[in-house]
Structure formats: C-alpha cells, structure tokens
Amino acid sequence: MKKRMCIALILLAVITGLPVFANGSQESDGSDKYEVAFLLKSTAQDFWDHVRIGGHNYAMENSDKVDLKFYGAEHDMAVEEALAILENIITTQPDGIVMASVNPETMAPMIERADAAGIKVITVNDSVKLFTDAYSAEFVSDNYSGGVIAADFFVKHLKDNGKPLEGKVAIHSAVAGHPDLIKRCQGFQDRLVEIAPGIEILEWRYYDVDTMKEVSLTEDVITVEGDDLICIYVDAGMGTIGAQRVLVEKEKYDDICLIGWDSSPEAIEGLSSGWLKGLVLQDPYGMGYLGMENLVKVLDGETVNKDNPVPMVIFTKDDMGTQEAAEFLDPTLREIK
Fold first, then answer.
1. pLDDT value, residue 45
2. N or C terminus of the chain with fewer C-beta within 10 Å?
3. Could you give the count of Cα atoms lying within 13 Å of 20 in the half-sphere of its Cβ?
C-alpha cells in the first residue's frame, strides 16, 4: 500500500485544473489504506452518479481499508479531457483505478500504461477487451441482449394492445461508432427483424449525448413519418429524456411507444405516468460497488473473474411500487451519508 498526503492530491488538482470530487471514504487517519481513483465517464448524467454511489457506498463500508477519490469529465464525449484526467491519475500513483472509458479504443493505451506502472485497473460499463487485456476485471452489461429484450417487450406491447405488427420504428443512438451503443441498437434491430419482419426500421440517427438534439430528432421523425411511426428506441439516458419531452408535449405517447435506457428522475416520472412504455436498466450502482469490491480483492492478492457480465432488466409502469424497485430505479435513495 502507498501512503499519500491528502494535501498533495488537492494541490495537484488545483495546479492541473482537473476535477476531483466526492470523497467516498472517510478522511485518512494515517494508517495504511489502498488509494483508489474512480474515473467516471462524466459528471453530466444521472447514470454516472448512480455508478458513483455504488463505489462511494463500498468505500464508506470499508473506510478502514480504502481512500477513494472520484474524477470525471464534464461530458460523455470529452475524450481529450478524460485522457488528461486519466494521465493525471496515473501520475499520482494510486494503488488502483476503477474507470469507465469515454472511448475504449482511445483509452486502452493509458490502461496499459497504468498496468505497466503497477496500478491495477478495473473497468465498468464500457468493455475494453477488444483493445487491451491490461485490466484486472471488467463489469459490463451485455448490451446486445439489452437490445433484444427491448425488442421482445415492444412486440409484446403491440400484441397486448391489439395493434398490428406493422409501421415504422426510429432508432436513436447517443454516439456514432461506439461499440457498446452499436450492440444496443443492433440487438434491438436484429431481434425485431426476426420476430416482426413487417415492421420497417428507419436509418439510425445520432443525438451526440445532447438532450436538445434528441428533441430535434424526435420532432423531425414525427413530422416526416406521421402516423406510420409506432416506436422510438433510444439507447441512453439523455436521449430518453429528450424524446419523452416531445411525446408528452405533442400528446403522442400512446400512439408512439417510447423505449429508453437508464434511469433518471424524468424517466421515473415517465414510467409512472405511462409516457415511457419501457426502460432498459443496467445496474450502475452494482457496477460501482462490484468494481470497488473486486479491485480491493485484487490488491489483496486474490484471484477474480476477468470478464463479468452485469444482468439487465426492462422496467414498465407495472414493475413500480415497491421499495426495492424504487431503490433500483433511484440509487440516491441508497447513498450512505
């Protein structure tokens, strides 16, 4: 284990201008603890705050063993900022890093650099295994299967409401070219072609992790496709919020089935009100908690599974109403203060 003075990290953050926030463990008492840096993809989305809470809670429960600091870029697409933050983290020589990659291919060499420096790395949410094996473990959702369960839900929704399996479906993705997002959309499309071949799937559109751009995309597709449009499938949280706003404003939420990803206060309201028909949920809290738990195991010399799929579910209005569901949808209810 390495000992560091807290003031040194604070001064480094001030000098570099990089964000350090939300100390998840209690203040160091001078004893040996593992120093862990937790790099979130960004500070811009509720999803990443839910990941943070999982890591924070583990650190609070194990404050005698872990000193934890969180870092994060301002935006999910801020690749250069994220790389600079990771480089800064490596310079401080923590014992380990838990991280989500803004761009797995771009950040893979930095992960290899950390590994070469003796820093153990665990990744969450975004898989880097196509680009490097220099990580100790990763905890990621099976994004393709998430798309599949969304398609199964959509077809069941149509059948349950006595609607024909025909019409047009829009697929809106957060970022072009991101391997995990491609899987989310491809899984949905492949399954829909298989079980409802009479439905036409429109060309994928991209909203660049921008809620207002998704608002524009949704308005455009409704205008162009009219009554033929029967579903909008959105593969990340900020897009879900944007599409929902438009459907509520135009009172189209019963005509157009909205299926989104990732929880937020707006998505929870949408489920409760029936505006959002289905919400694919990963387990961001679990990713954060398991990432920390397994990093400590690695640092203790234990062997852990390298590849760890995180189960997903699809939530509807009917799944709400219990404390367990409320805490899964909103991990802020679980945060240890």
1. 84
2. C
3. 21
Rounded CA-CA distance 62/114 in Å is: 24
Strands (E) across the chain are located at 34-40, 66-72, 96-99, 120-124, 137-141, 167-173, 199-201, 205-206, 229-234, 257-261, 278-281, 307-310, 313-315
CATH numeric code, 6-125+283-305: 3.40.50.2300
Using an 8 Å Cβ cutoff, are 85 and 288 in contact?
no
- How much is the pTM? 0.84
CB 290 within 8 A of CB 308: yes
Tokens 């600079």 correspond to what residue? 84
The pLDDT tens digits for 113-136 are 999 999 999 999 989 999 999 999
Locate the domains of the chain by residue range.
Answer: 6-125+283-305, 143-281
Q: Is the domain defined by 143-281 classed in CATH 3.30.450.40?
A: no
For the chain, what's the residue count?
A: 337
Strand partners, 206: 173
Sheet-wide strand order for 96-99? 66-72, 34-40, 96-99, 120-124, 137-141, 307-310
Cα separation of 118 and 65, whole Å?
19
